[in-house]
């Protein structure tokens, strides 16, 4: 197995035709039989992989230096357009959030883990959006099967349902309500877990204005949650960051296993 084939399988599993800018094969490799995978894999994990005899390291969170990575945020344009929000409006509303992330990324030590992997000659790659897309689809389908015909669903019922999924049940940090209460009516439930990262308050408000009653997300900042509360138009359920990432990563690893590649999970991945 090569790093390219591993990536191709991940993309196919996520039903993606092209590799998103938040993914990358940082150090190529072949004859891969044992993979060490985690949510965040840096120099320490690369050294551990070499010590334990792994053939490749896979990080979920981006470790590549693609200058176009922030364009993955544009996925929110497509999502909102399906809900009836014009592209030009979404583009304007996302500008501040994209600028904020650009400032943060510009000062980061972007080639730290890349340089370590090259010195160690350790095949190294990152798979972000594919795993998030898979997680999003799994949770949306699950919640739809539970509540699509129950218009008076309460937010507490979403929390209870999520904990039926092994990755959430086994996680140290359980799903929580960040905006709304357990007795709040859920309305239309929309799972938002892909699109690079949280899109910011302006975009989140557009989801609610477009008819979403409850957003189910991986994470949200306290600042954003407080601001959304003042709007008084929707609920936010946080399913959990590591556990949500784990859903997609476990699915990808299962597909690799069908091709004879053994994957060992660490660094935040919750096993099912």
List keywords for this structure.
Udp-n-acetylmuramoylalanyl-d-glutamate--2,6- Diaminopimelate Ligase, Chain: A, domain 1, 46% helix, five-stranded mixed β-sheet, 11 helices, alpha/beta, globular, single chain, four-stranded mixed β-sheet
Describe the structure.
- The protein folds into two domains: 3-127 and 245-262, Udp-n-acetylmuramoylalanyl-d-glutamate--2,6- Diaminopimelate Ligase, Chain: A, domain 1 (3-Layer(aba) Sandwich); 133-244, Udp-n-acetylmuramoylalanyl-d-glutamate--2,6- Diaminopimelate Ligase, Chain: A, domain 1 (3-Layer(aba) Sandwich).
- The protein is built from eleven helices and nine strands.
- Helix 1 crosses helix 11 (241-258), helix 2 (43-52) runs parallel beside helix 5 and helix 6 (129-147) packs across helix 11 (241-258).
- The model has no long low-confidence stretch (mean pLDDT 95).
- The protein has 272 residues and is of the alpha/beta class.
- The chain has a five-stranded mixed sheet with strand order 1-4-3-2-9, with helices on both faces.
- The protein has helices at 3-13, 43-52, 75-82, 87-106, 112-120, 129-147, 155-162, 166-169, 201-209, 222-231, 241-258, and strands at residues 24-27, 34-38, 56-59, 124-126, 176-179, 188-192, 212-217, 235-238, 262-266.
The main sheet orders its strands as 1-4-3-2-9
What is the overall shape? globular
Counting copies of identical and different chains, the oligomeric state is single chain
Mean of all residue-level pLDDT scores:
95
CATH architecture of the largest domain: 3-Layer(aba) Sandwich
Helix coverage percent of residues?
A: 40-55%
- Do you know the CATH topology of the largest domain? Udp-n-acetylmuramoylalanyl-d-glutamate--2,6- Diaminopimelate Ligase, Chain: A, domain 1
User: What portion of residues belong to β-strands?
Assistant: 5-15%
Intertermini distance:
25 Å
Radius of gyration: 19 Å
Number of domains: 2
Number of strands: 9
Which sheet architecture does the biggest sheet show?
5 strands, mixed
Low-pLDDT regions? none
Structural class: alpha/beta
* CATH C-level name of the largest domain: Alpha Beta
Instruction: Please write the string of helix (H) and strand (E) elements.
Output: HEEHEHHHEHHHEEHEHEHE
Count of DSSP H/I helices? 11
């Amino acid at each position: 197995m090569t790093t390219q084939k591993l990536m191709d399988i991940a993309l196919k599993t996520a039903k993606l035709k092209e590799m998103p800018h938040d993914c990358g094969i940082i150090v190529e490799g072949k004859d891969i039989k044992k993979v060490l995978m985690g949510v965040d894999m840096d120099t320490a994990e690369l050294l551990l992989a070499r010590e334990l005899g792994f053939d490749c390291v896979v990080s979920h969170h981006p470790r590549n230096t693609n200058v176009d990575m922030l364009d993955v945020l544009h996925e929110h344009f497509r999502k909102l357009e399906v809900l009836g929000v014009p592209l030009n409006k979404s583009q304007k509303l996302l500008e501040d959030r994209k600028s904020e992330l650009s400032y943060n990324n510009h000062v980061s030590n972007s080639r730290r883990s890349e340089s370590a992997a090259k010195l160690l000659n350790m095949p190294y790659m990152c798979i972000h959006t594919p795993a998030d897309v898979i997680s999003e689809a799994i949770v949306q389908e699950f919640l739809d099967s539970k509540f699509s015909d129950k218009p008076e669903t309460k937010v507490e019922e979403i929390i209870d349902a999520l904990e039926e999924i092994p990755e959430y049940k086994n996680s140290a940090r359980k799903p929580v309500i960040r905006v709304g209460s357990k007795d709040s009516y859920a309305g239309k439930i929309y799972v938002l877990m892909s699109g690079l990262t949280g899109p910011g308050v302006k975009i989140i408000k557009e989801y609610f204005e477009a008819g979403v009653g409850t957003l189910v997300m991986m994470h949200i900042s306290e600042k954003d949650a407080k601001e959304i509360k003042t709007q008084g138009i929707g609920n936010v359920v946080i399913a959990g960051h590591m556990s949500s990432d784990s859903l997609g990563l476990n699915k990808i690893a299962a597909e690799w296993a069908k091709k004879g590649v053994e994957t060992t999970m660490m660094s935040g991945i919750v096993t099912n």
